[in-house]
Specification:
Number of strands of chain B: 13
Number of helices of chain A: 9
Number of strands of chain A: 4
Helix content of chain A: 55-70%
Strand content of chain A: 5-15%
Distance between the termini of chain B: 44 Å
Shape of chain B: elongated
Order of helices and strands of chain A: HHHHHHEEHHEEH
Helix content of chain B: 25-40%
Structural class of chain B: alpha/beta
Oligomer: heterodimer
Number of helices of chain B: 11
Strand order of the largest sheet of chain A: 1-2
Largest sheet of chain B: 6 strands, mixed
Structural class of chain A: mainly alpha
Shape of chain A: globular
Chain lengths: 253, 324
């Protein structure tokens, strides 16, 4: 029943996002490609498409992170919700799981649209490398692998934004936690840039996991140790609902 | 097995707050270098010893800020006590929160999920409580005339309160804990609610714990009363015993030997002494007369007068409900 509550509160955001992605897909499907692109530029075009989706999907994660127990505390119905016979952790993990369960298919669907478009372009070029895309370091990468990696990376980013926002709303006991989360998400890259400017030896991890390395504005290669970065990112994402649970259990309502 | 539905021993809830910052101008700017922050403890509940018998209707009385809601939040496991012990239905609200919540209905803030209708809220609640009854929910929706198809935020205060109560009643609880259930309600709705609570709930041998500062309502339905002030329980007794034992006595006499245990309060006026006594009145007045005192009158007291005397405001305030 509690999952149903989260679904009721998030279904409008989910449905709008779903309609936008389906609209984008139908538009892509109807669009005619008149001239084949240079196969060497395909990787850069693909990287742009993959990175571009992080902004709207991140925004959606931010929006959906504000739904749940934290917002209920802000709306003063915490005493009702938390006198239902469940542990407080149940509410946190239900919100978190239900939010991510909605975000995951949206991310997958969006990446499917990107794959579809890239695949069409690849076919237009004659697909000389049989489903693989050339990188400027002389190697090739499978389109399916690139999009799958992108799917995981985008989902991890969206999950990070969602989890941070969710944690903030619980910690602030108010939906205004989303403002705090937005502040952190904006301030962190700026801080990382400033630190790198003054102490070039220090590399703070970026919000976006870099799937590609670039050279002279073009995709050079796939990033090394991407699996490790993704595992660390997943760990951080998992830590946030744990932290929200701890905060909620210690909170007087 | 305990005969108490609720028991607390030296229960405490203190909030630490920083305040009384000296050296600050009226505009809020620091005006003096000797800026000092003092923290102090707000003792919301301060050594509360309470015993609520099973099957009773217990009126928990206190002024605003006396500690009623904090006590209820502690019993619900919503807040963590600073010290002391408590048991609800023989269980510890911190260690056994879930079984307590399955068997106890709480109505505290009277704010439900604002975008849900009554029917949605019934659907939402159903899955949480093993003894939930849709039939009871439908019955109380009809009896209390709750518009179940309207969103909670669009309901009137009275209907919001009724819906909160409906959900608590339909969960099949053994114990119902209500915080100011009639606050802000008109007399008709108040009457409706109290009838349902007493006739349908408490008469089946279940325990009703009701906090309020509306004394006439508590006097109407309760069989036990507890009076809390500044976080301490000042009086806990059967209402019949309270009514029977508290008397206002006016006497004329000098050098009277009166036991402190019997006299709640003594006020000496011009030639007469007014005593608020809490004892067997016949024996007490007989002892006064044996000392040569003239007992001018012995007046019974209603709950409102007793309440004011117990919390120490009997002289400063005229009990409104007496005037009414």
């Amino acid at each position: 029943m509690y999952l149903w509550k989260y679904w009721r509160e998030s279904r409008i955001a989910f449905s709008v996002a779903l309609l936008v992605i389906i609209g984008a897909f139908l538009n892509t499907f109807r669009e005619r490609i008149h001239s084949a692109p240079d196969v060497r530029q395909l990787s850069t075009l693909l990287a742009l498409l993959l990175y571009f989706q992080m902004v709207p999907l991140g925004f959606l994660g931010w929006l959906m992170g504000s739904i749940g127990a934290g917002r209920d505390l802000g709306e003063k119905n915490g005493s009702f919700l938390f006198t239902r016979p469940r542990r407080r952790g149940y509410f946190v993990w239900s919100d978190w799981a239900c939010g991510l369960a909605q975000l995951l298919p949206l991310v997958m669907l969006n990446n499917f649209v990107v794959w579809f478009q890239a695949h069409r372009l690849l076919l237009m070029t004659g697909d000389p490398l049989h489903g693989r895309i050339p990188l400027t370091n002389g190697t090739t990468a499978s389109l399916a692998v690139i999009v799958s990696l992108s799917c995981i990376i985008v989902f991890l980013l969206v999950a990070l934004v969602f989890s941070l926002t969710y944690f903030s709303t619980v910690a602030f006991k108010h939906a205004r936690g989303i403002i705090f989360a937005a502040g952190v998400l904006i301030a962190y890259p700026i801080l990382a840039m400033r630190i790198q400017h003054y102490w070039p030896a220090i590399h703070m991890p970026g919000l976006f996991l870099q799937q590609f390395t670039f050279a002279r504005g073009q995709v050079y290669s796939l990033t090394d140790h991407l699996g490790l970065s993704m595992a660390i990112r997943a760990g951080v994402v998992l830590l946030l609902p744990f932290a929200a649970q701890v905060v909620l259990e210690k909170t007087d309502i | 097995m305990s005969d108490l539905a609720i028991e607390t021993q030296s229960l405490q809830k203190h909030y630490r707050s920083f305040h009384a910052v000296s050296g600050i101008s009226s505009r809020g700017k620091v005006a003096h270098p000797s800026l000092q922050k003092h923290h102090h403890f707000l003792r919301a509940v301060d050594g509360l010893d309470m015993h609520v018998p099973k099957g009773s209707i217990y009126g928990f009385l206190g002024r605003n800020g006396a500690g009623k809601t904090t006590t209820i939040r502690l019993l619900a496991g919503l807040a963590h006590p600073t010290g002391g012990r408590m048991q609800v239905l023989g269980l510890d609200p911190l260690a056994d929160r879930i079984p307590i919540l399955e068997r106890t209905g709480f109505v505290i803030d009277k704010v439900l999920l604002p975008s849900m209708t009554g029917n949605d809220l019934v659907r939402f609640n159903r899955g949480f409580f093993p003894r939930w009854s849709d039939a009871l929910a439908a019955k109380y929706a009809e009896v209390l005339e709750v518009p179940m198809k309207q969103k909670f935020r669009k309901l009137s205060t009275g209907n919001q309160t009724k819906l909160c109560l409906l959900l608590a009643l339909a969960q099949g609880a053994e114990l119902l804990i209500l915080d100011e259930p009639t606050a802000g309600l008109d007399p008709v709705v108040t009457d409706q609610l109290l009838r349902v609570l007493v006739d349908d709930f408490a008469n089946e041998g279940r325990t009703l714990f009701l906090s309020s500062h509306h004394l006439s309502e508590v006097e109407r339905v309760s069989d036990w009363v507890g009076i809390i002030d500044h976080g301490k329980l000042l009086l806990e007794e059967r209402l019949d015993d309270v009514r029977a034992n508290f008397r206002r006595v006016r006497v004329v006499g000098e050098n009277l030997s009166i036991s402190r245990n019997e006299v709640f309060k003594m006020k000496t006026g011009e030639g007469t002494t007014e005593l608020i006594v809490r004892t067997n009145i016949e024996a007490f007045t007989a002892r006064l007369r044996s000392q040569g005192a003239v007992v001018l009158d012995v007046a019974p007291m209603n709950l409102s007068e007793i309440f004011l005397e117990v919390i120490g405001k009997g002289e400063a305030n005229v009990p409104v409900e007496v005037l009414a």
